[in-house]
Amino acid sequence: HGNGAGAAAQAHALAPQPAPWAPAVAPQGGAKTAKVLYVNGAAYTQLELLGRGGSSKVYSVLNASGRHLALKRVNCENRKQLEGFQNEVTLLQQLRHHERVIQVIDAEVDWERGRISIVMEAGEADLNTYLRATPDLGLEQIQRLWRQMLEAVQVIHAERIVHADLKPMNFLLVHGRLKVIDFGIAKRISCDTTNISRDSSVGTLSYMAPEAVRQGSDGLKLGRASDIWSLGIILYQMVYGKSPMAHMETLQRWMALNDPHFEIEFPAEHRLMGHAASTRHQLLDILTRCLQRDPRKRPTLPELLAHPFLRSSAEVERGAVQAVISELMGNILEVVGVAPLPGEAGAMAPWRALADEVWERVLARGAGDSHESAAPFRFPEGLVPFEEFLERRNRSEAAAAQAAAQAAAQALCFEDDTVEGEALPPGSTAPMRQVLGAALSAAAGAPAPAAPKGGRAVKFVVWDEDTYDASD
């Protein structure tokens, strides 16, 4: 729509920026004088053009005190367009002091010139830019971004506003937290209904809900659920690296949204495929519910915020941690092949020190000890029992291998006492068995039996099982 790229860039201070406290410096000598933009008589020094779209442009500016801001200027072609942008100004002013919504510093509507100017706080990057720069999003990052998006949209839904154009470009990172921006086509829901009405489709097609393009005889009716669909598309993009209809042409997307039999696919391969089945199931549950064609079946924002997928903290008793550590170590011993001794199976006793160390480590992390700054932790006491279990297994395996090798050596025999017509030396089979047993023991990793006494040299003859072709 006409407000698209410009509105999406309305607070995007993406290029290297001067420090917020740096005052505007007047050019010296013959340098070009910096352009100054005025809003309600206040001067703003223009630094650079951040973006444009349709009839709007967004500039990076400095105010008189040197604060870095973003200024959106719209030149309207007619009164109806001007009224539309005035609606954006009105909504943003009504949403002042909501920290999850981009904050308006000042705004001016010039009816004579058909121009609107909006001064807003600046940000670091929009979500679209962030996703392109971060191709390997992890679970923690996805959860954090998803929660912040839900909380931001919940603010405007609580004010009975349908945004109608949610997409990554319309979420801005300000001091590391997402804020919703661009209210160019947003609309407030009347008190006597739950929907907004439009005469025609408007928005960004890749993120529009089916009901936003399916026009009936009485026009389009959109509710809060249409924003839920858009949020689901954004989550899909974060997980799969692209939107579900990115491979389609514009007309194909339009037809798909109007096709009641079209269903979005959810491939098994995505950024969280290495996580537990429970986590993958929670993710799929959110995506399938948000992307229901029937808006009545989509979840509400409170339901999404309470979903287990976002459960990143919980109050846990220390005893529960100890029990889980005991179960975990029991499973590990089973996997590595260590059989517990009588009374050891499921016992907590060997793992008390490890449970204590894990508990203290979790508390340290919870107190703000970040992954980047924390030194590697070795659990010095807690893993001693595990090392002892492994040593016991190794001794057991070595003894078993030695016994098997000796048994194999004792079982060696010959069909007769001659090879190629030559009689074997009297008493030679015993040392042969002993030396072969030593070789078998060495191959099995077991200690070799004692060498035959007397230093007798023995010539070994090896032959093929079928042909008995003899060779040294």
Automatic annotation (TrEMBL):
GO terms for cellular component: kinetochore; nucleus. One of its GO terms (molecular function) is protein serine/threonine kinase activity. GO terms for biological process: chromosome segregation; meiotic spindle assembly checkpoint signaling; mitotic spindle assembly checkpoint signaling; protein localization to kinetochore. Keywords: ATP-binding, Kinase, Nucleotide-binding, Serine/threonine-protein kinase, Transferase. Pfam families: Pkinase. InterPro entries: Kinase-like_dom_sf, Prot_kinase_dom, Protein_kinase_ATP_BS, Ser/Thr_kinase_AS. ATP binds at residue 72. Residues 44-310 form the Protein kinase domain. Belongs to the protein kinase superfamily. This is Protein kinase domain-containing protein. It comes from Zooxanthella nutricula.
